[in-house]
Amino acid sequence: MTTYSAVRTTGIYCRPGCGAKPLAENVQTFELAAAAEAAGFRACLRCRPYRVAGTVADEAPELVCRAVQLIIAGVLDAAGEAALAARIGVSARHLRRMFHEHLGVTPDQFARSRRAHFARRLLDDSELGIAEVAFASGFGSLRQFNRAMREIFRASPKELRERRRKTDRLTADGGLVLRLPYTPPYDWEAMSGFLAAQAIPGVESVEGGVYRRTITLDGAPGLLEIGPGGPDHLLLHAHLPFWEGVMHVVDRAACLVGLETDLSTARQFLSGDPELAPRLAARPGLRIPGAWGPFEVAVQAVLRNPPETLQEPDEVRREPRHRTEVLAVLGAGDRELSPWRDEPGGLGSAGEQAGHARDVLGERESAGGALPGSGAAGAVVGEQADAHGVKRGRGEVDEVRRGRGAVGEADEVRRRGGDVDVVRGGRGAVGEGDQVRRGGGGADEVLRKIVEVYGIAVPGLGFGLTHLFPAPEALTGVEPVAALAREVADGNIVLDCGRPEELARRLEQVAGVSRRAAQLVVMRLGGRDAWPLDGDAGHLSPWRSLAAFHHLVDDYAKVS
User: With CB atoms 3.0 to 4.6 Å apart as the test, which of 124, 322, 370, 401 could cross-link to 380 if both were Cys?
Assistant: First the structure.
């Protein structure tokens, strides 16, 4: 955990290792940079504490840690502290009291500090204009941006950019390159190995130690690349259709690779267990991975961990809605992929994002063009539906017309060697008995077919990336994940860890979701006490997630 030292006589705070040597009686310590700023101190110009990982210590109460994760996810961008408190089941007053007691700041002050620090890093590292930096960092206006930067850094954004160092600037062949700071040690090899083993075909890949995935922002596709950088940071290459709100893209990428959590207290606690102690010593930098798209993580967990009473699914069934020539049109990007998601005042619900993407597709297809805004990623969504028109409305994706030549009622859509064949078993429209058969390959093959059939195609990316993961609305008729998709699409289950115990209970009540799958989802979404293994391991509570992940990583290493 990073501890910041503030000097009362100068009004400056520093990170550990700074060359300044003030008198001990003049020094006050803070666990967060935001707390030092709230107390009236400014960042040191020499050690630049805004450039290090500002994680919250895991010794803070779980309620506070859950609230922090929701702030990182952008909850306070579109709502106030009352909405944040409601997500974790407490009053706004109690939440503010807990933040003051354990972090030294209010939730709003914590969020503002994060935005300002991210903006300062963009000013240092990138060539984005001042206005682009403001909106990329989540500020609502230039006036708000200038005021916050002057209050926190005592200088205007223009003055701050003029102070940057030559070594700060990052360049890349297209896209935006940013550092993802962390406090060593950090085991990227183990993290990338886990992500490779769990990669969703067509959506994620790991090659040459670099993790890549497709994403969608407000209906437009993009590409992220995360790989090793320096001794205290990873490098993120973001190829996005626009830069507005990119702070949330970076935050979610950091959460995905486990950089937003401090596990020092958990490691100290678990090191007392004789079985875990050697594992912890062998992998001191192991972090628990998060999730870019909570829904895709849930689908993956269900398919890879079916209930014991069920056999592994041999086929993906649904009530088809389209001709085989347009298999990719129903997916609109993961409900959880947009950094603004479904918060009040955000940039669109999942259904609205889906409708926007399809509206654009229809317009561009008729004009013979490509999806606008995706040039930065080299992603062109093409060869889409000529048989469908889709309208959008309050989270729903509705079919409004069909072309001629629909597949017959008893027809079977079958994949062979990557191609789609229609095996005619009748005539007319496709009925409930249709299925996309799996030719082998287990859960990976089922995931691949789900992505290919219901996700939007994004050609030209390479590295095995071909599609965006489909939204819950597109999978409400696809077994064995139909029940889960319906619950998420209807808003009955919210996939975040505001209340991890309740989330696990709700997931286990869904048909087709095993206890192991539910616990894996909770673990990936930030729950600190999930246990997706056999037995109970109550003696490891409340840090069972880290213990379980050590077991999982070792199991993957043995298999590989």
Answer: 370
Which residues, in sequence order, are CB contacts of 524 under 8 Å at separation 6+? 288, 289, 290, 291, 294, 297, 301
What CA dihedral angle connects 121, 122, 123 and 126, to 10 degrees?
120
Q: Enter the tokens of residue 315.
A: 């086929």
Structure tokens at 53: 């990982």
133 in Cβ contact with 62 (< 8 Å):
no
Strands 210-217 and 204-207: antiparallel
Domain ranges of the chain: 4-125+127-167
Q: How far apart are CA 291 and CA 157, in angstroms?
A: 33
- Strand arrangement of the beta sheet that strand 233-239 belongs to: 176-181, 233-239, 220-230, 210-217, 204-207
CA 42 distance to own-chain centroid: 31
pLDDT band at 57; cut points 50, 70, 90: confident
Cα–Cα distance measured from residue 169 to residue 176, given in angstroms and rounded to the nearest whole number: 11
Task: Encode pLDDT of 162-198 as tens digits.
Answer: 998 888 877 656 789 999 999 999 999 999 999 999 9
Taking Cα atoms as reference points, which of 236, 240, 263, 264 lies closest to residue 250? 236
Structure tokens at 363: 């317009």
The answer to whether domain 4-125+127-167 has CATH 1.10.10.60 is yes
pLDDT at 308: 80
Q: Exposed, middle or buried, 32 (CB in 10 Å: 0-12/13-18/19+)?
A: buried
Half-sphere exposure of 483 (CA within 13 A, CB side): 12
pLDDT in tens, 391-432: 333 333 333 323 333 333 333 333 333 333 333 233 222 233
**SS3 for 211?**
strand
Q: Which amino acid is at 392?
A: R
The strand pairing partners of 396, in sequence order, are 393
| Cβ atoms within 10 Å of 15's Cβ, excluding its own | 20
